[in-house]
Amino acid sequence: MLTIDKLREFGADVDEGLSRCMKMEDFYIGLVKKAVADNRLPLLEQQIGEGDLDAAFETAHALKGMYANLSLSPLTKPVSEITELLRGRTETDYSPLLAEAKVQFEALCSL
């Protein structure tokens, strides 16, 4: 069961996330559950793999916003780095950042 304490252990800035949700724990937890159910991280990996950096930027930017608004810091960091690289349409090896994002996402899912 997803709890505030488990999110703290994960590394989320729960106090900041709660402040964005008017200190309503159930609302915050519900939004985090929606983030867990979101399937755009595999889509981002696919778009990058196909070289569609325009679409990948849009996907990464959306994920960055979702993770940042929920203060899911361990996920926000790699996705933010990916977003900024994609903003410049940088041709690079995204696999280390994607791997880190996937590890953090799996950690979140296992809470």
Written account of the structure:
By secondary structure, this protein is mostly helical. Helices cover 76% and strands 0% of the residues. The protein is built from 7 helices and no strands. It has helices at 4-10, 14-20, 25-37, 40-49, 53-69, 73-87, 95-109. Helix 4 packs antiparallel against helix 5 (53-69), helix 5 runs antiparallel to helix 6 (73-87) and helix 6 (73-87) packs antiparallel against helix 7 (95-109). It is elongated. The chain starts with a helix and ends with a helix. The relative contact order is 0.16. The mean pLDDT is 97.
Summarize the helices and strands and which ones pair or pack.
Blueprint: H1 4-10, H2 14-20, H3 25-37, H4 40-49, H5 53-69, H6 73-87, H7 95-109
Helix pairs in contact: 4-5, 5-6, 6-7
List the secondary-structure elements in sequence, H or E.
Answer: HHHHHHH
> Mean pLDDT, nearest integer?
97
Strand content: under 5%
Cα radius of gyration in angstroms: 14 Å
Largest sheet: none
Distance between the termini: 7 Å
Tally of strands: 0
Provide a quick synopsis of the model.
By secondary structure, the protein is mainly α. It has helices at 4-10, 14-20, 25-37, 40-49, 53-69, 73-87, 95-109.
Any descriptors?
111 residues; mainly alpha; 0% strand
